[in-house]
Amino acid sequence: MIVQEGDPVPGADGSAFQLSNVAPVINNLGDVAFDARMTKPNQSDVRALWTTGVSGLRMAASQFAPAPGTDPSVVFGGFIFPLVLGDGGQVAFGGAVTGPGLPPIGRRGFWSERADGLSLVYLAGTPAVGTAPGIRFSYFTDWPVINGAGQTAFWAKLTGSNVTSISDEGVWRAHGGQQELVAREGDRAPGYPPGVVLKGLSSYPQIDDFGRVIFWSGLSGPGIDSLTNEVIFRGEPGSLSPIMRAGDPIPELGDGVYLATLDPFLKSNRAGDTVQQTYLGGPGINNINSWCLVVDRGGQFSIAAREADPAPGAGDGAVFSYFELPAIGNGGHVAFAASIRGPEVPLTEASGIWLDRVGSLELIAREGSAAPGTEPGVVFGSFYYFIDLMVNGRGQVAFLAHVRGPGVDSANNVGVWATTHAGELRLIYRKGLTIEVGANDRRTLDSGISILTFAGGGGGTTTSFNDDGYLTFKAAITDGFDAILVAQTIADTDGDGFLDPDDQCPDDNPHGLDANADGCTDSPQDLIAMVERLDLNPGLKQAMTSQLEAAIAAAACGNEPAALRAVGAFAALVAAQRGKHVSPGDADLLLELANNVMTRLATNHRSAPRKEPNLTPVPAHPQTAVPVPRSP
């Protein structure tokens, strides 16, 4: 458990937490960000944004505090949700400000953390970079996006001299307080002949880890008609390229079949891959087979699923009939909910969740099928209009769903399920389930499970599910208070009827070699995760992670002595930097972790039979164990 309502606020004498209805988010380092009020008897509540990290729980921003980048008398009046949490631990958020002298439009903005603190990204009423003097921002997208490098992308409305309805929108990229215009309505469309201009821009741009902004735009001009007036662009300021156009042919579906529409709300991942819902046109296309999901992975386009195509795993004659809000993970996997139809498909089994494993489509869960981890006869309810769906970078799917059946009532009818790395679907949490939130502290989930799912965790956004399989959520627990919790998607793997730290490694007894208290024996991956979370200069961070990656590679080949030497070199580097570039507390924890890793490697080496080295290549993305944050 991260925090519970009523817990004391660190550093605020006499104040206690009161959680909001906003779902928490988690990044790939296991940091969690959430919104909560600070309450104190006989005083007004103060709203604040919080995040966890190596140094523990900290406040990122608070109501009534000065808003950086504005006049000293201007303060935060509130926050606009959801939060975004970068993999560097930086929080980004929209906010409303208040103070003397603000123009009517100058009351909303967006801020992002940097190494030196909060930085203003943009503010309504300020000059719009890349436009003529006198033109200002007037309105922004409420949903901010940020990539791994801390770059943001945003859409904005404009006001000012000579701004009209055909030139009042734009998309910008920002970093370190510096903005760059990416595209503006009325500008010439990149990759098109002279005279073709941008007409309307999507208010939900995405940004990948290469700094490329991805967005939808309408078109107008010579040669543009109702079949060719949409395009998806990807690129950086000054180097945009169309990656998909309305009217583009789809050869795999036959001669003359083309994309009839594109999706302004497409989803993308950190690599810039996209998924969108579109309509088809052309020979043989009609109103029962024109709806589909189109995926772009590295410039290679494919149809993930199409209306009237067979629905895998749903039985003979079952076909797709409608799709709901697809999500794309950082590994290119696409998850989606869909309704199905067919002569043998009853209405009580007419929806499900599917996963496209980069070309291989499989059924994850179906309405009317047994809900894993529940009593006999309990089945999943409808997934129609289902939106609480996420997929991470390893292709794990997590979702919130309702169940029905014997013994199901309002006290236990909602839960969260997720697939393991092997693809097995398991119950993670359910209303009425008892969980362990601390040492000898077991609670029951009462109600109000809340998770954040938008965009599937890529394209500059964060969700409640990270690439290591950790899921954060807000829920009410037995004492009637809300709490922010984190779970690992392995569920109750030791079969003791409780969700507790032992479930993270059911076949692993750390024997005291667990400095980060995650229930698993410490590993080089744990060290890498902690190093990545520290605020170190890039050269030092690279030197440390290089030694640990060498240890992982050596251990994978059965060469424990080489792995021991690499971890020892890492420990020596940490010891040399203790109290200099690495704080004493962080250094001591790193050294304890490193000593545990070396003890385990030495034990494995002494007990292992003599054998030839294993020359199997090391996987590109070794599994990382991220500690579950927990209350002191």
Describe the structure.
With 632 residues, the chain is mainly β. It has 4 helices and 38 strands. It has a 5-stranded antiparallel beta sheet with strand order 1-38-37-36-35, with no helix packed on it. Helix 1 (524-533) runs antiparallel to helix 2 (538-556), helix 1 packs antiparallel against helix 4 (584-607) and helix 2 (538-556) runs antiparallel to helix 3. The protein is globular. Mean pLDDT is 83; it is low at 497-501 and 608-632.
Give the overall silhouette. globular
As a percent range, the share of strand residues is 35-45%
| Classification by helices and strands | mainly beta
Strand count, sense and barrel status of the largest sheet are: 5 strands, antiparallel
Number of strands: 38
Determine the fraction of residues in helical runs and give it as a percent range. 10-25%
List unreliable stretches of 5+ residues.
497-501, 608-632
Q: Strand sequence of the main sheet, in spatial order?
A: 1-38-37-36-35
Q: Whole-Å distance between the termini?
A: 10 Å
Output the radius of gyration. Answer: 26 Å
Q: Count of helical segments?
A: 4
The whole-number mean of residue pLDDT values reads 83
Note the main attributes of this structure.
mainly beta, 632 residues, disordered C terminus, five-stranded antiparallel β-sheet, 38 strands, globular
Write a brief structural summary:
With 632 residues, the protein is mostly beta strands.
Explain the layout of strands and helices.
Elements: E1 3-4, E2 16-19, E3 25-26, E4 32-40, E5 43-51, E6 58-62, E7 75-85, E8 91-98, E9 108-114, E10 117-123, E11 136-140, E12 145-146, E13 152-159, E14 169-175, E15 178-184, E16 197-201, E17 206-207, E18 213-220, E19 230-236, E20 239-245, E21 258-259, E22 267-268, E23 274-281, E24 291-297, E25 300-306, E26 319-328, E27 334-341, E28 351-356, E29 361-366, E30 379-380, E31 389-391, E32 397-404, E33 414-419, E34 425-430, E35 434-438, E36 441-450, E37 470-477, E38 482-488, H1 524-533, H2 538-556, H3 560-577, H4 584-607
Antiparallel strand pairs: 1-38, 2-4, 3-4, 4-5, 5-6, 7-8, 8-9, 9-10, 11-13, 12-13, 13-14, 14-15, 16-18, 17-18, 18-19, 19-20, 21-23, 22-23, 23-24, 24-25, 26-27, 27-28, 28-29, 30-32, 31-32, 32-33, 33-34, 35-36, 36-37, 37-38
Helix pairs in contact: 1-2, 1-4, 2-3, 3-4
